[in-house]
Amino acid sequence: MRIHIGTDHAGLEFSTQLQHHLASQGHEVVDHGPIEYDPLDDYPAFCIRAAQAVVRDQADGVETLGVVFGGSGNGEQIAANKVLGVRAALVWNMATAELAREHNDANVIAIGARQHTFEEAASFIDRFIATPFSGEERHARRIAQLAAFEQDGILLPDPRERAGQPDVLDASEAFDPEAG
Questions:
Q1: Residue 32 annotated to the active site
Q2: Whose CA is closest to 43, among 100, 97, 112?
Q3: What angle do the packed helices 12-24 and 118-130 form, to 10 degrees?
């Protein structure tokens, strides 16, 4: 599988280790990150390039995924998700790595390189790569809704509009937390 990676200075050392780790497993690794340490570089371009490459490869029928990382993984996930066709998930444990693929068919994950040891992060990435999308109808339906919104900005109807209900609780109404 081809794995596109992107980071900034916060993940540069992690990136080198990850490239060796993934290559030793037989993956083709494409690095979109910096080539030297610059504490003032910015993650968006690196992560967006990695995400664009994933979408391009998938459109060409290449089996590919992406991994973006930085200090927390948050900004990197946001940057990757700006690319049409990317479903980037922030991963912080084995369950989120697995569910990102199994339920969301994520094609990119984001990890906080300063939040985990290399061994932890590598295990999350390995699990993400090894986990297939379940293909369950409910998950496929939700992913299709996301893709449709990306294309035309249309959402399913708001159920409050049909029911004539306000979208906020009137202050004079009592709230019963047990009622849901």
A1: no
A2: 112
A3: 50
CA separation for the pair 77, 151 (Å, rounded): 20
Tens digits of per-residue pLDDT, 5-53? 999 888 888 899 999 999 999 999 999 988 888 888 899 999 999 999 9
Give the three-state DSSP class for 65. Answer: strand
Chain position carrying tokens 């990695």: 50
List 98, 103, 120, 139, catalytic entry: 103
Q: Of the residues 4, 32, 76, 116, which is catalytic?
A: 76
Q: Please tell me the distance from the alpha carbon of residue 143 to that of residue 138, in angstroms, as a whole number.
A: 9
Whether 30 and 2 have beta carbons less than 8 Å apart is answered as yes
Judge whether 76 counts as a catalytic residue.
yes
Q: Say which amino acid occupies 44.
A: P
